[in-house]
């Protein structure tokens, strides 16, 4: 074998080595966390991280209290004529359809109408759907901060001598470590929501 040819091969091999090592060292493209979601992938969201609010028993709650649970958070009010009861009824169906995994679910209902939603009323409202559901009642100041932190819209709308509330209708879903992962659309069926939530459960195993 020609000595100069051997040296040329060796030189080319040495030059190629860093390229090979560099290619091996490159991180693979990040794969999407979820596939075929009916809801919204929120895994990259940098908001809706935590809250500090009183429950109906006067105990201050944060996300840390629900570590180990798949948490569903919905903002609403007890005099809501349709959106809120529909979302909570769906949450009941979701829990049932999850079977044994239903025990891993924790539903939190954050009132956007603390003026009328007393602790007693909120407690009874949760009992009407599922005794395990927890209602949180912020002060007006806490509500403004929490809604801002969670990018939730709410607005008081006069109706003659009374008022109603306009508000966002997404349900946020958190993994067992308290990280926001997806948002359920109000139009999703319980079956579609369960399929999405099972993907969050799979991440948490």
Topology:
Blueprint: H1 3-25, E1 40-41, E2 53-54, E3 60-61, E4 70-76, H2 83-97, E5 105-111, H3 119-129, E6 134-136, H4 140-149, E7 154-159, E8 162-167, E9 171-174, E10 180-184, H5 190-203
Parallel strand pairs: 4-5, 5-6
Antiparallel strand pairs: 1-10, 2-3, 4-9, 7-8, 9-10
Explained architecture:
The chain is of the alpha+beta class. It has a single domain (40-203), classed as Glutaredoxin (3-Layer(aba) Sandwich). 36% of the residues lie in helices and 21% in strands. A hairpin with a 5-residue loop joins strand 9 (171-174) and strand 10 (180-184). The longest helix has 23 residues, at 3-25. The radius of gyration is 25 Å and the shape is globular. Residues 2-25 have low confidence and may be disordered.
CA(first)-CA(last) distance:
59 Å
Q: What name does CATH use for the topology?
A: Glutaredoxin
Mean pLDDT: 89
Q: State the helix count.
A: 5
What is the makeup of the main sheet? 6 strands, mixed
Order of SSEs, N→C? HEEEEHEHEHEEEEH
As laid out across the biggest beta sheet, the strand order is: 1-10-9-4-5-6
What is the CATH-assigned architecture? 3-Layer(aba) Sandwich
Tally of strands: 10
Overall geometric form: globular
Ranges where pLDDT stays below 50 over 5 or more residues in a row are 2-25
Task: Indicate how many domains the architecture comprises.
Answer: 1
Structural class by helix and strand composition: alpha+beta
- Percentage of residues in helical conformation: 25-40%
**What is the CATH homologous superfamily assignment?**
Glutaredoxin
Rg for CA atoms:
25 Å
Q: What is the name of the CATH class? A: Alpha Beta
Strand content range: 15-25%
